[in-house]
Amino acid sequence: MVFYGQLVVGAPGAGKSTYCSGLVQLLKQLKRPVICVNLDPANDVIPFDCDVDIRELVTVEDAMETFNLGPNGALRYCMQTLLKNIGWLKHKITSLAKEASYLVIDMPGQLELYNSDDSITQIIQQFNKWDWRMCAVHLSDSVYIADPGKFVSVILAALSIMVNLEVAQINVLTKVDLLDEDRLPYDFEFFENLPDLKYLTDLLDDHPFLSQYKNLSSKLCEIVDSYSLVGFVPLNVKSKERMLHLLKQADKANGFELIDSKDLRGVIVAS
C-alpha cells in the first residue's frame, strides 16, 4: 500500500504539534484519510488524536531512569530503539489503513539527533523501502528573522536537516501573525526568497571580537547562495489560505495528487 505524508521537523517551540493539529483538521475536512504518528519520545502533550505513539514502545523518562542518561542521550537511545523495532511502526500504521492514507508524523525537534546519530536517517530510508512517499516540513520560528545572526543559524539548521534526511523538504517560518514587520531589517519577502544573503551578513556586528564569526557566517552564506539551497514559506496556522498553500506544496513534494480547487471551498481551519 502506498502512503503519502509529511515528516514534521523543527526545533522545540517552533510549533510542530500545533501545525500537526491544524493539518489534521484540514485533512479531515478535505475527506482525506489521515494517520497521525508521534515519533517524538519527549512530547508528552499532544494536541491531536494520535493513532501511533512511540511512547507505547519507549519513553525518554524510562531511558533516563533505567540507563542514567541525560535528556539528549535518552532521546538518542529512544530513536535507536525505534530503529531496532522498526517493524513495530510498520505494523502499527498498516494495521490502521483501510485505504491509501496520508501520514502526519511529528518528529523529534533536537537538531543533535540529526547530526550526531544516523538512526533517524536509517528510519527514513526504511520508509522509502516501504513505498511511504514522504516529504519533510521543517518549521522555524519567524521571530528569529529580526536577528540576522540567529537567522543565519536557522538557515544552517534547515540545510542540515535537508542533508541528513535526504528527502524533499519545505522550509517554513511559523507564527508570522505575531511578527512586527516594522522591526525587521528588510521586507518579509526577503526572508522568504533569500535573493542575496550578503545583505543579511552585512547586518552582523563589525565588532573586532566578532570578526571571525562574521567572516564564517559570510562564507557559509555564500555557499547557500551559490546553490539556491534554502527558501522559506510563511505560515500562520490560523490562516486557511496559508495552510492550504503549504499543503499544496507538500503534495507536490511527496507526489500526492494536487487538490482540486473545488474541494477547498468551505474549508475552515480552527485555531
UniProtKB/TrEMBL annotation:
The keyword GTP-binding applies. The keyword Ribonucleoprotein does not apply. One of its GO terms (molecular function) is GTPase activity. SUPFAM superfamilies: P-loop containing nucleoside triphosphate hydrolases. Pfam families: ATP_bind_1. Keywords: GTP-binding, Hydrolase, Nucleotide-binding. InterPro entries: Gpn (IPR004130), Gpn2 (IPR030231), P-loop_NTPase (IPR027417). One of its GO terms (cellular component) is cytoplasm. Coiled coil: none annotated. Belongs to the GPN-loop GTPase family. Small GTPase required for proper localization of RNA polymerase II and III (RNAPII and RNAPIII). May act at an RNAP assembly step prior to nuclear import. Heterodimers with GPN1 or GPN3. Binds to RNA polymerase II (RNAPII). This is GPN-loop GTPase 2.
